Amino acid sequence: MARQYFGTDGIRGLVGVSPITPDFVMRLGYAAGKVLAGKASGTVSKRPTVLIGKDTRISGYMLEAALQAGLAAAGVDVMLAGPMPTPAIAYLTRALRLSAGVVISASHNPFQDNGIKFFSDQGTKLPDAVELEIEAALAHPMDCVAPEKLGRAKRLDDAQGRYIEFCKSTFPNELDLRGLKVVVDCAHGAAYNIAPHVFHELGAEVIAIGNKPDGFNINKAHGATAPEAMAAAVRAHGADLGIALDGDADRLIMCDANGRLYNGDELLYLMVIDRLATGPVAGAVGTLMTNMAVEVAIKQKGVGFARAKVGDRYVLEVMQEKGWLLGGEGSGHLLCIDKHTTGDGIISALQVLSALKRAGRSLEEATAELVLFPQTLINVRVTPGFDWTANAAMVAEKEQVERELGDTGRVLIRASGTEPLIRVMVEARNADHARSMAQRIADKIDVKLAA
């Protein structure tokens, strides 16, 4: 059965346009409440309870109220955490033994977008099969339980403090961050009042930027999708490194003292090398987009490497299948499942910082052996449902480029799971070749078919 609403990271879209409307979100809350309540392994009370968190978008208030109403109509109690990182909701859902967690966020998208994503009672993203059950439930009319069975709502007042302590617990007890000056860019998002405290309480001198959300500025010129602000602040303040999160704080991009940026591929490599210094590492998982140089370098260290479909949920699935602990994406989603059940920008940053502390090296020194292959990614906006494989000219150009590259590079074309985009990626040992080849393919998209 094809999914109608759920993408690779929940349900997402422009606020006020289906499906991100109050009436749909209320129906979604009702459908999810019916499905998830029956799957919980344990709750804090005799009634199913769901935790709701959100990022700092102005639309979060409206969607939170709609979601709460739908869950209450299904007989589900609600706990409201307010603005919290996505991984915080995953942690608190599991720690409080709740039935499920829900996050209202469109992650790295601008404020006009929003979305809904769910976590199971174990703090993991819902499997495709469960999302399909929710979609099936949406096909039925919304009902309401008897008045005496309606759900209630209450605030979780200590949510921030609980999560800050959890993040700190993933950092080695024998280490601290004293003597380190760091810039922390919160993207005017969900971590604005959390991330600076975590690094400060571990001993770092923190310069916080992107920490003044107003409902409209989330991800605007700040954060992991606009890391130039972090890099500029690092240079301006003479900091040792920078940490940039996205709007819901599950992505991480870093920079060194010179402002040189490090993406998720490089940070995954660094974490693998750090783990190898203290014991064997069975393997690490990347995605179809992971730079080929990372795969080559990790395998040269005697560590296994596997690629998953793009999306941290699929990285996690392969990690679980293989029993491996580390995985990630170049976009900055990094997973250390011996530390947390889902990708977490703050916790990933702490793993990088602990690796640097143990090695006594800078970010630049620790990754010096890894030289990424030039990679060009072009995003082409299309109509929803556009099938690039039906574009004969584009397919033919892709095949021609692959023949020219041989074994010196690769081509990947895929549809975005969160936006109506076709992503054209070419990787080659020569940067000019990568750029020109990617553009050749992108130029073949039939405007009549795509528009």
UniProtKB/TrEMBL annotation:
Residues making up the signal peptide according to the UniProt record: none
Catalytic activity reported: alpha-D-glucosamine 1-phosphate = D-glucosamine 6-phosphate
GO molecular function: magnesium ion binding; phosphoglucosamine mutase activity; phosphomannomutase activity
UniProt name for this protein: Phosphoglucosamine mutase
Organism placement in taxonomy: Bacteria, Pseudomonadati, Pseudomonadota, Betaproteobacteria, Burkholderiales
Phosphoserine PTM sites in chain numbering: 107
SUPFAM superfamilies for the chain: Phosphoglucomutase, C-terminal domain, Phosphoglucomutase, first 3 domains
Annotated organism of origin: Duganella phyllosphaerae
Active-site residues annotated for this sequence: 107 (phosphoserine intermediate)
Gene3D superfamilies: Alpha-D-Glucose-1,6-Bisphosphate, subunit A, domain 3, Alpha-D-phosphohexomutase, C-terminal domain
